[in-house]
From TrEMBL:
Keyword Oxidoreductase: no
PANTHER family cross-referenced by the UniProt entry: DELTA-AMINOLEVULINIC ACID DEHYDRATASE (PTHR11458)
Lineage: Archaea, Thermoproteota, Thermoprotei, Thermoproteales, Thermoproteaceae
Species assigned in the record: Pyrobaculum ferrireducens
GO cellular component: cytosol
Entry binding sites for 5-aminolevulinate 2: S282, Y321
Pathways per UniProt: Porphyrin-containing compound metabolism; protoporphyrin-IX biosynthesis; coproporphyrinogen-III from 5-aminolevulinate: step 1/4
Name by which UniProt lists this protein: Delta-aminolevulinic acid dehydratase
Reaction(s) catalysed by this chain's protein: 2 5-aminolevulinate = porphobilinogen + 2 H2O + H(+)
UniProt binding sites for Mg(2+): E240
Record: active site: K202, K255
Length: 336
């Protein structure tokens, strides 16, 4: 017998055979498209995230979502951007029934109904004047975020978004017990059908930098390391995920995605029955955009390669700013 006996290259010889045996396929239905909404004015480009905008609640937003739907991207997650003047210490614009996210949810659900699934991020960093994700208190000359007070406000915010018509609420503040408290509040108000996508394993990551510019939500002092997870820990994600599932989360999430593919795989392996989302965050997006604009990488192939890798690692859905571009590129087939 002539060497070599086994020739894996036979299965790579043409696109047809590669496609026939490919394990992972991306589809526009895999994506949840994050959209920043603002109260009024015209659409505004986000300097830290080329290709992304802050959309005024109105006609321009509706047209953009129409485009998204026409590409097969039928899930969006909304983030509110409000002027500094209306922010306060307890983030009240976040649970104002007439706030920007509530208005956007109403408009989108009235316009698109069941054609569109609307997720609403539940957090307070976009609405507090200090930029932390909850109520800040002082003790012995040190500041801290008051967990239980904050969770009460998240529950209020979640009910407001559910009342506006959100299909899912997505608590992203990493406070202990937030999922249970939100589930209780939703049920108490009759919103049994509103789901919870929990940001379960959300790491304290510098990859959120461009988002914080977009949403003007950077903390004014300190950082988020007392509530978001330590990047050095993978197994701890299993603890967070198990707690969130027990508290009633319908979908769990790992965030960021690209530098945490091992965590995605770990969670999928241990909880194969739990729908798993991965957040391909702002910094991951903007790195690709920056490198592509310099001609260092092929944006189309790199983007599809990254998203495929996130799915291959075990994600069932991917929150990604690349959603519309990727959906457009996928129409031409895969580049692999
Ligand atoms: C709110 C929130 C953040 C992101 C999603 N929800 C920012 C943060 O935790 O600072 C980041 C998303 C991204 O970077 O794309 N807490």
């Amino acid at each position: 017998m002539k060497f070599p006996l086994a020739r894996p290259r036979r299965l790579r010889a043409s696109k047809i055979i590669r496609d026939a045996i490919a394990e992972t396929w991306l589809d526009p239905g895999d994506f949840i498209y994050p959209i920043f909404v603002k109260p009024a004015g015209g659409r505004e480009p986000i300097p830290s995230m080329p290709g992304q905008y802050r959309w005024p609640v109105g006609e321009e937003l509706v047209r953009h979502v129409e485009e998204s739907l026409s590409l097969g991207v039928n899930k969006v997650i909304l983030f509110g951007v409000v002027p500094d003047e209306v922010k306060d210490a307890v983030g009240s614009p976040g649970y104002d029934p007439h706030g920007v996210v509530s208005r956007a949810i109403r408009l989108l659900k009235e316009t698109f109904g069941d054609r569109l699934l609307v997720f609403a991020d539940v957090c307070l960093c976009e609405y507090t004047d200090h930029g932390h994700c909850g109520v800040v208190r002082q003790k012995g000359g040190r500041w801290y975020v008051d967990n239980d007070e904050t969770v009460k406000l998240y529950a209020r915010e979640a009910v407001v978004y559910a009342d506006a018509g959100a299909d899912f609420v997505a608590p992203s503040g990493m406070m202990d017990g937030q999922v249970a408290e939100i589930r209780k509040a939703l049920d108490a108000h009759g919103f049994h059908e509103v789901g919870i996508m929990a940001y379960s394993a959300k790491y304290a990551s510098a990859f959120y930098g461009p988002f914080r510019v977009a949403a003007a939500s950077a903390p004014k002092f300190g950082d988020r390391r007392t509530y978001q997870m330590d990047p050095r820990n993978a197994y701890e994600a299993l603890k967070e995920v198990s707690m969130d599932l027990e508290e009633g989360a319908d979908i769990v999430m790992v965030k960021p995605a690209l530098a945490y593919l091992d965590v995605i795989r770990l969670v999928k392996t241990h909880y194969p029955w739990a729908p798993l989302a991965a957040y391909n965050v702002s910094g991951e997006y903007s790195m690709v955009k920056a490198a592509a604009s310099q001609g260092y990488i092929d944006e189309r192939i790199v983007t599809l390669e990254i998203l495929t890798a996130i799915k291959r690692a075990g994600a069932d859905v991917i929150l990604t700013y690349h959603a519309l571009d990727a959906a457009r590129w996928l129409r031409e087939g895969t580049p692999f």
